[in-house]
User: What shape does this take?
Amino acid sequence: MYEFSYKKVSSVEDAVAAMQSADDGKFVAGGQTMLPTMKHRLASPSDLIDLGGIGALNGISIDDDTVTIGAMTTHASVAASSEVQVAIPALAKLAGNIGDPAVRNRGTIGGSIANNDPAADYPAAVIALGATVKTNKREIPGDEFFTGMFETALAEDEVITAVSFPMVDKAAYMKFENPASRYAIVGVFVAKSGDSVRVGITGATPCAHRGMRLEAALNGNFSAAAVEGVKIPVEKMNSDIHASAEYRAHLVKVMTRRAVEACS
Assistant: This one.
């Protein structure tokens, strides 16, 4: 690592002030991405601002038909929450299959979506469930939050405080995972509420996105068979040592079919 200043703050206001006074500061939540990146000298922030001491950012609450999860809530806490398991079982299951136990007990939902790794799991749920990302400044619709590879709508001094997920009638998340990292080579989250279906896709393209073509097919016929005729644009798919663009396009349909079947 390069030399940096470490600051542990106890409030969102202190975190923002520390960021505004830093030459090139970075917020750190669970540190599951930031610290390895720094160790490999791929990032060299002047200041590391630790959000771990902000108790107000941790916790899960249910209000009417909404599940709100504090930004510093760990994946393990989401997976183990009886409230989430009842309200949105697919979200609890998703959290319980992120990485390994060490990652799940340190990584946070806020850190995950702020980093916006193209193969992360939570972005698919944020998009498919129509979640709202709450910050110290505003509320950002999930459809508008993820803007590009490792890029989001957040300003440099903006802190995620919570994510609110509307409850739905049915939902399921299926992913074809990298056996080593358990990142999604392709992951598909399907959510159905009334006659409306939303599909969130991760791992397939440089940024998590809505599967609009799949939604159109499923809105007319919510069945695995409806996916067969959907054309997935191969030219938009990622291609790397783990999977070709053609294989990812194939996996999008396979994972969607499995998610639809799991909703039944």
